């Protein structure tokens, strides 16, 4: 057992798994959470970092799932990485309402719920780190991912607001914003036929996680992470009109765009 303890959600694969590896390699014991059975296999691999790893299989899109995780917190948390999230791709007039409401429950409600539960302990100790996975989609209109993009804009604004409230408490709050990353996100979002879903130059999940982890250690406010092109897109999004950004996102996310020559 180490002196540090971290909770990571969405840790069975992708960015969350890579974040958990970084925490483990930096002398944190781990409480790792995902809704799928892969969290057990992930925990076994994460234990090779030398960390004590406890896996929890829970559906964070439900109130009971979040409370299941809260009940599993058995020692003070030094860091919390709220990474779990899903996307839904396609025209808003055609996508399934139930899927989008579930997205809101996971991407937004669980973030607020878990933050509300973990902050009191950090405030009592006067220390802690909160790391939120937003998205570069939070910086632009996101046609054909309308609810997903809006959910990540919420995460970004929520993190920055809480950061300001906690500025004199010893707790740091960091949001990081990946671009398209090589994970199973696009398959789950039904976006494999899009340019974003098929790009050969999707960012590496391990590199994205590394940059996000380092931003957290530095106490940064918010950071666009990934390749040079992704980070430049973040810079451009600071000045481009919303209509221009919407058109650019449409070219990447419109169904069938990956089949164009």
SSE diagram, text form:
Layout: E1 4-9, H1 14-25, E2 28-34, H2 38-46, E3 53-57, H3 63-72, E4 79-82, H4 97-125, E5 128-133, H5 146-165, E6 171-178, H6 185-188, H7 195-198, H8 205-218, E7 222-225, H9 228-237, H10 242-253
Parallel strand pairs: 1-2, 1-4, 2-3, 4-5, 5-6, 6-7
Structural notes for this entry:
The chain is globular and about 55 Å long. Helix 1 packs across helix 8 (205-218), helix 3 packs parallel to helix 4 (97-125) and helix 4 (97-125) packs parallel to helix 5 (146-165). Helices cover 48% and strands 15% of the residues. With 261 residues, it is of the alpha/beta class. Helix 5 links the parallel strand 5 and strand 6. The longest helix has 29 residues, at 97-125. It has one domain: 3-Layer(aba) Sandwich (Rossmann fold). Strands 3-2-1-4-5-6-7 form a 7-stranded parallel beta sheet, sandwiched between helices.
Care to give the gist of this entry?
With 261 residues, the chain is α/β, with parallel strands linked by helices.
